[in-house]
Amino acid sequence: MRVAMIGTGYVGLVSGTCFSEFGTEVVCVDKDEAKIERLQAGEIPIFEPGLDQLVNTNCRAGRLSFTTDLALAVSKADAVFIAVGTPTSENGESADLANVFAVVRQVAAHLQGYTVIVTKSTVPVGTGRQVAAAVREVNPEADFDVVSNPEFLREGSAINDFIRPDRVVIGAETDSAREIMRVIYRPLYLIETPILFTSLETAELTKYAANAFLAMKISFINEIADLCEHTNADVHHVARGIGLDGRIGPKFLHPGPGYGGSCFPKDTMALAHTARNLESPVRIIETVIAVNETRKRAMADKIVAHCGGSVAGKTLAVLGVTFKPNTDDMRDSPSLVILPLLLEQGAKLQAYDPEGMTEAAKLIDGVTWIENAYEAVSGADALVLLTEWNEFRALDLERIKSLLNAPVVIDLRNIYDPTEMAEAGFSYTSLGRPPRVDRQVRH
User: Fold this and answer.
1) Which CATH class is domain 211-429?
2) What is the dihedral angle through the alpha carbons of 367, 370, 372, 373, rounded to the nearest 10 degrees?
3) In CATH terms, are 2-198 and 211-429 the same topology?
4) Of the residues 18, 28, 228, 263, which is catalytic?
5) If we measure between CA atoms, which residue out of 19, 23, 151, 136 comes closest to residue 84?
6) Which of 12, 111, 355, 428 has its CA 20 to 30 A from that of 418?
7) How far, in whole angstroms, is CA 147 from its chain's centroid?
8) Is 263 a catalytic residue?
């Protein structure tokens, strides 16, 4: 089995590498010559734990290679996966499919024999049919099928998500296409992974529905956290109380400054846009989008309030700027809204992030970037915890207190215990928890 993976971004590189780990011969294609040269030299352009080792192992084994020659890769492939970006379009709502169809036309021109064309990119419902039509327009004699195979990868744990997934969703409508996909995913049958075969449209919608539901859980618990602050309830206990219900589950019930990243923001907007166009609006998701946008601005207000009502002329230490830990991804990170709002109000920011500072520096002007957490805290008037990297979970609190001009901490990820922080002498605020927690009910 030979696979061509078109696109070496996050999804394409992880997927192609993991398929090669399954024993499949994979060639990853990208038009960016500099990126391909880096990959051929063993340099990984994204941060994902364990990916560098997996890439190098499979390259040495001869199962994984990288090229800019799309024509050659496609002509030899049994399956061509399209894994290029589908960013939000200029209208700020729908998915921009220009990259997808540019690749489809190139692929169509170089097909040799029966080939399965697989959309791995996140695309709106109906795209698979449009892909098939585009292929026929370019190459009327082509022998092919179109398959939708959405990814469900979490940045920071993508390799495990691919190799040991909860499920695999495959939209395929011919026996030939289904058999090709069964062979590609055969290693997962051995560990009894649920593999769901559906129509094209069902697979496409499943991806959007999954991300929208998870985004909804995040916005839900964020609003419950706000309510807790007005009722002296503890959002962690509420989350545990509802999460133990098997119908709800505990995941994605962690309050924070709002969701971000490459998927939830654009996918919720694209789903809402599609639904409106079909005159079947998803009002819950439209509300989720609005709540999330409001959330980021509310977090900036919360920081200002805990700094005495003004941050003008004050130095704030910020730990973490990526949208989540274990990634260098800054796309739609809450920090891209929160930090500029603080700067506009006269704050001076000195920030540290283990992996995201290079990219963040391109996106946020006016921040002083520091090389470690303690240097970032030194001389600051308050500490803001914005991303829950592991190295921030066990900071030396006495040292932090001695480095700050004032013992003020705003924890937007609820990393620390309110009672312990109060006993350590900090003016501490977090999300949806009382300032002090009764030790008899703490867990």
Assistant:
1) alpha beta
2) -40
3) yes
4) 263
5) 151
6) 355
7) 23
8) yes
